[in-house]
DNA sequence: ACAAAGTTTACTATTTTGGTCAACAATGGA
DNA sequence: TCCATTGTTGACCAAAATAGTAAACTTTGT
């Protein structure tokens, strides 16, 4: 029950992108540098997000990445789903055929509830939430003043 | 974010044990047979449960396994914890040192909430719940009569 | 044309998972 | 006492997933 580095790096990259977005696209290289993630590896991680249309990319000189939606409209549930492939603790949730006698299996119901709990948690958080949280954490002096 | 077979097999084995408990110990061989799990593999899976004292084992002729507590006092959270090692989606929940700058990391907070959600779900289910659920599923005719 | 970006494919090393096997230890019964 | 039976342990192994590297390729602005 571990999250892969893809999910963690990807989320951080997306958060980084959200925070540094402006008129101009943000280069993958910058994100990799700031987040201390291998550029080559990050390319692989970002790919599914681009394919899914969460990120728009423009190649060539002065190219880079941009979010296609506002951060408040990007839920972590969707992000993790794309990065992790699936969040199901067991395969038979998605396709009951993977286990024999899935219809009489009682543990399956429990794993199913687990998935729901995870989904609900991730669904309640948007990229905007993360951005705001980060800003609060990075400006503690202002809070105390 | 997948559960290992150890967690799934182990839970099923424990459920099987709870259902077939009587005066005499239940043999690992029987459980393996009923649940269609490799005996040798199941030995390894059961081991941490014995070590943790959830199961009492007696060796030798006519030996076998017995629960040390009533099924209603065995929570899945504890079982999965033992079988899976940890339920944390990331290491830095348990030991914050594993990530650098864990104190300013906002994604960590999210993963932490995920863990809480999972824990809560598993904590709300006991072995007894599973047994009852199973019995309801296996006797649908009686329900309809 | 050229340099600067992202894209894609191929490859690799390491770790985790999911087992198997065999020696061993303890126990009850003949 | 000895043996069959049952659980315990540690060594070992193959396959898959994970994490990462490298390089060729495509697109685009200047
Ligand atoms: S049906 Fe898949 S775990 Fe039981
Ligand atoms: S501190 Fe561990 S994920 Fe950020």
Key structural traits:
homodimer, 145 residues, mainly alpha, two-stranded antiparallel sheet, 7 helices, binds FE2/S2 (inorganic) cluster, DNA-binding
Description:
Two copies of one chain form a homodimer. By secondary structure, chain A is mainly α. The first copy, chain A, has a single domain (5-138), classed as Winged helix-like DNA-binding domain superfamily/Winged helix DNA-binding domain (Arc Repressor Mutant, subunit A), CATH 1.10.10.10. Chain A contains seven helices and two strands. Chain A has helices at 5-20, 28-35, 39-51, 76-84, 106-123, 127-138, 140-144, and strands at residues 55-58, 64-67. A two-stranded antiparallel ribbon of chain A has the order 1-2. In chain A, strand 1 and strand 2 form a beta hairpin. In chain A, helix 1 (5-20) packs across helix 4 (76-84), helix 1 (5-20) crosses helix 6 (127-138) and helix 4 crosses helix 5. The longest helix of chain A is centred in the C-terminal third of the chain and has 18 residues, at 106-123. Chain A is elongated, with a radius of gyration of 18 Å. The mean pLDDT of chain A is 92. One FE2/S2 (inorganic) cluster binds next to helix 5 of chain B.
In short:
Chain A is mostly helical. Chain A contains 7 helices and 2 strands; from the N terminus they run H-H-H-E-E-H-H-H-H.
Topology diagram in text:
Two copies of one chain form a homodimer.
Chain A: H1 5-20, H2 28-35, H3 39-51, E1 55-58, E2 64-67, H4 76-84, H5 106-123, H6 127-138, H7 140-144
Antiparallel strand pairs in A: 1-2
Bound molecules: FE2/S2 (inorganic) cluster (FES) (2 copies).
Chain A binds a DNA duplex (30 and 30 nucleotides) through helix 3.
């Amino acid at each position: 029950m571990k999250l892969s580095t893809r999910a963690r790096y990807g989320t951080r990259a997306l958060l980084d992108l959200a925070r540094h977005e402006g008129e101009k696209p943000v280069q993958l290289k910058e994100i990799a540098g700031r987040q201390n993630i291998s550029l080559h590896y990050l390319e692989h991680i970002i790919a599914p997000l681009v394919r899914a249309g969460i990120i728009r990319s423009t190649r060539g000189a002065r190219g880079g990445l941009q979010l296609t939606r506002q951060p408040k409209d990007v839920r972590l549930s969707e992000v993790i789903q794309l990065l992790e492939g699936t969040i199901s603790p067991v395969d038979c949730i998605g396709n009951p055929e993977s286990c024999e006698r899935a219809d009489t299996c009682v543990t399956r119901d429990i794993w199913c509830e687990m998935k729901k709990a995870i989904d609900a948690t991730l669904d309640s958080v948007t990229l905007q939430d993360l951005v705001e949280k980060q800003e609060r954490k990075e400006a503690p002096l202002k809070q105390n003043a």
